[in-house]
């Protein structure tokens, strides 16, 4: 109970935290920042400057990949919200007590299954010799098998599939806290369905919406498997570029630059999202994990 | 030698003084209560005795030995927590055996000791029950048994009845007193409920704003309060604010704020011209006549029937509402009757006006 | 509300379709593990367990597929190490943020959450970069060959640990928050030493959270791809082995068989962690 013991235990508890955050999070980020600022001019000879960033800005291929990744990520986030909200509302408010838990668990099951298996499932379903195509041929809907993989729509369907659960979980847990009498009061005071939804349900679910959108956006922008496997060679996904620069071409300077850009871009979007909705990272993302 | 003594104990949290120069002596085998409103420092004092807080100044002695430098797990003072703090992951028997195990008691003797203490608290054979299977009153007794099995020098009880419903609380008051007598152990009981303190205790310390106002037997506190705070906090009292007009012998003539002059016993060193308060117990008030205090006129506002504790509410002409204990007078008055109220001057006390009153 | 039955009915259909969307790929991935064909596609040629147990090409079953088995073993022991480490660190963090007060606590708390919002690929490359920089430095200055700082299992462990610790910290801290501190004081008061209080009161209370944090960490580690991809050396874990197979050989039913094993395994573990979180009514 003495003050010294308190200090000692504080230091002992703080040490692992500091080592973890310092060595595995902060220093590595500084590391890629550092690498991204240096430019190879000869064997083991480097110059420092923003040349790597200038190269990026000039190369339309890379620039377009980032923009493409960005707009698809935002689109996927919106779709996940629009598609996931009714499901969450159903689970949290409409389903009966007993089926509620079962539905929620069912929602969680795919969450536990690897991205790889899920993407693989879509491949089995959608490729030229896949289940859907074969079934449609045998039913006579189409004459020839069609390839449904390797296009943007499939990539988006697959991405929404991968991330929608991360939208539903925070939404359900927020809306479960909403008292039914709030809704009843809303109707009782003469609100139409739309006003009750707009003035009561949405504001109440806001922390869940923000948390879900942030997580979904981060996961989508940072995803690798789904766009690469379902989009094929021409998926042009930004994380794929990072991998190519780092591992295939061994051009760490360019790869680190791309990494920093992706991090800056996603942080910017998250920051904007938090700003616009007046939430904080600690109260949204940390709450429902 | 006393079981527990505190000498000039003070506790500061930064600028704030939670406990200010408190001294007390608890004789062996007595039931001692500390009574005070929430935030008065009584819990801090108890936590210092248990060792969870270190005093900024002063000494705490148990059986004459200072325990200031003793860690909480080395002190032979056991504590019943406000929410009992029974371990939910252990059953009743394991809860009671916990302290014995910590003491390194012989394994073979533990079950027998547990059985005996359960007998003594009147719950034989509940060793294998889970905590959540017990009723509120049973949990209470298990919490006490868990401490008593260690034969502490002093048992501290931190408002343990607070979470119980009214009926059970009334019952447990009596039961606690009986348990204390059966175990012949010193109990130090903390509460903000004056009726708990009055019913159970041999001695009560009334605490306010970090310091003791008065230590004494329940009767002494009730009949002879030393301050307006004690008079107002212990038992019911009607409080009439006014200003001293004249002091004669031990009595003061007080002009009430709303008008009217009355006599009452001077209980502190207030003097002519001081702003004071008169404290009169409901049972000291009489309807009609003049008992020497000078009478106040008013109207019966309402009759509150509550068996032996029935009251007549009288709205004085000054606008103030007073409670009159209703012995056998209820039949004689009814609502809206014009009445006069008076008392024997030595049954009303004048104290200097309390801050904020 | 009149006419709402009609709407509710449409609503239910939507929910039903959604759940179909959820399970369709999983069913597809699972079902073809049992199809007696060399391609995971229709038509259905009859039920077989060959893709699990056969020991002859071309239908080499999972149990005889050396690289996949090795990948599974690698994933298993990496998962165990990472889960143990991140639960230990998460417990420290939980005590740090729930019990202690120190300057800039809320800023540090945000730092603790940050790894969750850094894309896994970036965590991977940044740790790769830092480790290589240190290894190169040690090599050029002291002639030391720190092979464990080159891509391989130790880096995979560090990479996964870096973000799993956030998850375990949050899970354990949530439970610790519900802990009534007077239970610890009661134990001290009854004469228990600090260590005994920790082992008999605090840790048993935390156990359900420790257990499910361990399972979550193990599962996420087992299934992780993005961070691992950047740090993998010669000992590839299962997801990387499967991905290689998918890219190089194309889809074969043995991958469906692995998927079945993964789904059943993680389903069971998930169920276990849910049960562990729910069963104690002590909070």
Strand-pairing-aware structural class of chain C:
mainly alpha
* Coarse morphology of chain A: globular
What helical percentage do the residues of chain C reach? Answer: over 70%
| Order of H and E elements of chain A | HEEHHHHHHHHHHHH
- Strand arrangement, largest sheet of chain A? 1-2
Domain ABC transporter (chain B): 4-234
Keywords (chain B): ATP-binding, Nucleotide-binding, Transport
GO biological process, one term (chain B): quaternary ammonium group transport
Protein name (chain B): Spermidine/putrescine transport system ATP-binding protein
Question: Would you kindly provide a written description of the structure presented here, covering whatever features stand out?
Answer:
By secondary structure, chain A is mainly alpha-helical. Helix content of chain A is 78%, strand content 3%. Chain A has helices spanning 3-36, 51-58, 60-94, 97-112, 115-126, 131-138, 152-176, 180-188, 193-221, 225-231, 238-248, 252-277, 281-284; strands at residues 38-42, 45-48. A two-stranded antiparallel ribbon of chain A has the order 1-2. In chain A, strand 1 (38-42) and strand 2 (45-48) form a beta hairpin. With 357 residues, chain B is an alpha+beta fold. Chain B has eight helices and 20 strands. In chain B, the strands form four sheets. Chain B has a six-stranded mixed beta sheet with strand order 6-7-8-3-9-10, with helices on both faces. A five-stranded mixed barrel of chain B has the order 11-12-13-20-14. In chain B, strands 15-19-16-17-18 form a five-stranded antiparallel beta sheet, with no helix packed on it. In chain B, a hairpin with a 4-residue loop joins strand 12 (251-256) and strand 13 (261-266). The relative contact order of chain B is 0.12. Chain C is built from eleven helices and no strands. Classes of the chains: A mainly alpha (289), B alpha+beta (357), C mainly alpha (283). The interface between A and C is large, with 79 and 84 residues.
